[in-house]
Design brief:
Aspartate Aminotransferase, domain 1, 421 residues, alpha/beta, homodimer, globular, eight-stranded mixed beta sheet
């Protein structure tokens, strides 16, 4: 918080207002909203676009062109099982989007109940859901859409505050929880082993409680090191809660964002329940695209090779954002931000009560930021302070201009706030 | 029905029993159950398996590799709109399976109600559904899964018996109806224009009544002629029922069965309602596969060229099946069958009460037939007489052996029945 005397504050306000007017005069049209890979990153997967060619037969002899196979083909299941360190028999491969599978899992629990339900969730008096914040907006939109009551839990450096989670989970009306356990959206936080085990072991009031383990960034490092992917299915089994996790993964930010392969890992019982509905919904996922992916990667090391290319493209962008935030903001104490080692986002906390104003100022200067509050259920950030920055899509030069502008907006909003006081 | 005197019947029974024993001695392992394209047919689409290559930008500049776009890309929507004779603005392109979209439409109506519903279908005392029979088993499985009461309506040569349909549709608990309007599964019947108009115009008790217009075989001719695809969206709009039809289409039996593109055509209001839920479920369909399909076909004539190849492969198989049925069965009056001009199936009606026995006899002789009753809701054929034959998958030589065997089984079951009497 700006800690200036009145004179200094007025002077600073004049300086930063002038800077903001200069910024507006540039008539920018820049966008930091989207957690999308850049064109350069998508190029890393271009070999896929000519696969599988004439090699359309899977290793077990399946003609991938024809109908059938709710589990996905063994070729990609085996490969991805190695990537995640999970047995292939516990892993289904799907179409492009794991979000689709999450929606289906929850909506089918709503209509039919899941394999541990006493009744369909639609017939419960109330369904509540644990939402660590800040979190992924599209997660919260699903549970909002189904009318669940979303209860927020703060994040620590090791994952969600487990005392709060344990207390909430004891309520039988609490049916589940959203998580992004590795390089979380938008915090970049990776859950510690202790947190993973605690989530696997905790008691829950509802027998059909589920944790959506959206491991969307399991291999999405910005450094030379890959994170440990804990086999929470094993942790849960050991703790006597074998059906606790719906473990999601996908190649969306590895190959083609909109044309990859999704994965759903879980206990056999959970997978059987899923298949009992998925087999009514349709005739199985696109096996051709799965085979193309298996051919493209060759093996788990092929996935890591691909991710090192992404890191080479993304890391300089993240570094420049962090440098600009540091250069422009650190001396004033008006903001804090995460320094992620992976994932797609930087989470920026500005002066309380000013996030929406920062986004508005930026918009008026031609810089699109993700809406304030978008990382919270119902888009309500109780402190109006969190802004999600997505550095992946723009080229570095644009990113620099945009971030310098954002810093100006953060300072101007802080000034305005300080002048009010 | 076998119309022999006792002596002749005993003699015939001896002959046909001997024939059946010969059949069993062959230890066959043949399969007529699956409405899948053959390997030869799938080959017609092999050029797709190397597309789109480096040409991944849609005509409007969209990078098809990245996220986004619930409607699908204009390239394939425009092309398919021409194939169906429907404006592209009324047509969304999706992932591989239109069955998936049908399930979503119905399950979302169940959870949320559709755009004309007074309440979600889950909150209705009872939901009933009109099921013309024989029909497509996977349709009936969806409405069974959601607990709807399925009411059957007989088929005429022009489509479902409209007097029966009108009477049922007047009931406010009747929320919808399954149809396969062109080259129906399994009958091969194509709805006449009068039937199409009558369905568009009829009054319904429920304001949110929907006809699932599963036009799965719209271009799947076995002759040189393509059927007229009536624009029922227009018929319905003219009649003041603009939201009546959920019109489905797909390339599943045109390019790759399990890796094609599906389509959903409807009124703007219906599409908006669909998008309001589909946008929560995910981030849009696989645009790369859509672009590959647009490149593969070039234009609507490209689709017709492709379908002529399929006809060249399928027509001789259908012809042999019909010849064998004629040669072996026509003189005895024990069966009738359809002579379709398109689609994937021949519908065989055997002596009442013997369909299950025919399927059992065939199974014991190593010939797998679709289960008796599978074309009826809950797999219950009230007359136990209908058998769905799927000639597409096996090579002609296998098909001949299998059909000759089936004819023997039909005759033996008819003999057994006659001997009982």
């Amino acid at each position: 918080m700006l800690d200036f005397d009145a004179e200094r504050l007025a002077q600073f306000n004049a300086e930063i207002t002038a800077k903001y007017e200069d910024l507006k005069a540039k008539n920018l049209n820049l966008n930091l909203t989207r957690g999308k890979p850049s064109s350069e990153q998508l190029d890393f997967g271009n070999a896929l676009l000519s696969l599988p060619g004439e090699n359309y037969i899977a290793a077990d002899g399946t003609d991938c062109r024809n109908y059938g196979g709710v589990t996905g083909i063994a070729d990609i299941r085996n490969l991805w099982a190695e990537v995640l360190g999970i047995p292939a028999e516990n892993l289904y491969a799907g179409d492009a989007s794991s979000l689709n599978i999450m929606f289906d899992l929850i909506s089918w629990s709503y209509i039919f109940g899941n394999n541990d339900s006493e009744r369909p969730w639609k017939d419960e008096e109330k369904v509540k859901w644990i939402c660590p914040v800040p979190g992924y907006d599209r997660h919260f939109t699903i549970t909002e859409h189904l009318g669940f009551e979303m209860i927020t839990v703060p994040m620590t450096d090791e994952g969600p505050d487990m005392d709060a989670v344990r207390e909430l989970a004891a309520d039988p009306q609490v049916k589940g929880m959203w998580t992004v356990p590795v390089f979380g959206n938008p915090t970049g936080i990776t859950f510690s082993e202790a947190t993973c085990r605690a989530l696997a072991e905790m008691e829950t009031g509802a027998p059909d409680f589920r944790i959506v383990w959206d491991n969307a960034y399991a291999v999405h490092t910005l450094t030379d090191e890959f994170p440990v992917v804990y086999n929470v299915l094993d942790f849960a089994k050991e703790a006597g809660n074998p059906n606790r996790f719906w473990f999601m993964s996908s190649t969306s930010k590895i190959t083609q964002a909109g044309a990859g392969v999704s994965f759903f890992a879980s206990s056999k019982e959970n997978l059987d329940w899923y298949a009992s509905h998925a087999n009514v919904r349709g005739i199985g996922p696109n096996k051709i695209n799965q085979l193309a992916h298996a051919q493209f990667f060759h093996d788990a090391e092929g996935v890591r090779i691909q991710m090192r290319k992404h890191a080479g493209s993304l890391a300089p962008k993240f570094q420049r954002v962090l440098e600009i935030l540091d250069e422009r903001l650190s001396e004033y104490g008006v903001a804090t931000w995460t320094k992620p080692k992976g994932g797609y986002f930087i989470s920026l906390d500005v002066v309380d009560g000013t996030a929406a104003r920062v986004v508005q100022l930026a918009k008026e200067a031609g810089i699109a930021l993700t809406g304030a509050g978008s990382s919270f259920p119902l888009h309500k950030d109780p402190n109006n302070r969190n802004i999600r920055l997505a550095p992946s899509l723009p080229p570095v030069e644009e990113l620099e201009v945009a971030m310098d502008g954002v810093a100006t907006c953060v300072l101007l909003a802080a000034c305005e706030k300080a002048l009010e006081a």
